[in-house]
Amino acid sequence: MLEKKTPLVEMIDISVSFGGIKAVDDASVELYAGEVVALVGHNGAGKSTLIKVLSGAYKRDAGIIRIDGQDATINNPRDAKAYGIETIYQQLAVADNVDAAANLFLGRELVTPFGTLDDAAMESRAREVMGRLNPNFRRFKEPVKALSGGQRQSVAIARAILFNARILIMDEPTAALGPQETAQVGDLIKQLKSEGIGIFLISHDIHDVFDLADRICVMKNGQVVGTAHTSDVTKDEVLGMIILGKSPPGAIPGPGAAKD
Q: Per-residue confidence at 90, pLDDT binned at 50, 70, 90?
């Protein structure tokens, strides 16, 4: 009998309310190392609220979070970072006027024994981590504002994994990118997967989801409609989950699944 792996992340029966309105209602999702799980649904479905509980931006009213099978206490972003959880938002929080190395070490700069910035050490580490992620990246001396959207995404991801992120939350990582840059971000995600990093991907783009995700979790009205391996469902079935709340045969239905 095969031994069941322990999930990297388990979010169990999470509920969040704002002003008496349940934004997330008994939602459960899990993530394994080296896996991409896409969270999809209409605006207001609850996917961003659920994931902000994991990132420490919101506090849950009920439910359990486990990291590596152990109960986790996450009350703020600092707690999340301590568990190796990093978030890359759609509006990339990069400093446009400085270069890649300065962005990677923003707020965590390396200094020499004399107390001055150790620019050489920071550039060396930046080249090392960027080389791991995107071997074609060469524009280390230019301000980030001069980079393409895909290259800026590379910098944001490199900053997250530089400090040993194990769990990455990516919010619409290919929004406003062209086909070539979208493919570049896809390559970055595949590289992260190969290193055992678990990724929650929030996306409205069904094509991206099927290209990048191993599993899909569909939310509607704050509840999980169903979860499925991308190989077990079609795009039309996922759209049916998003629009109608109907869980197809290839999915594990959640509390939000429409009753026949």
A: low
Return d(Cα 181, Cα 137) in angstroms, integer.
Answer: 13
Q: Which residues contact 21 (CB under 8 A, 6 or more apart)?
A: none
pLDDT at 155 over 60: yes
Average pLDDT (154-167) is 85
Q: How close are the terminal C-alpha atoms of the chain, in Å?
A: 35
Domains observed in the chain: 1-84+166-260 (3.40.50.300), 96-163 (no CATH)
Write out pLDDT tens, residues 101-145.
Answer: 888 888 888 899 999 989 889 989 888 888 887 788 888 888 888
Across-strand partners of 88? 170
Token couple for 225: 């409609």
Q: pTM for this structure?
A: 0.87
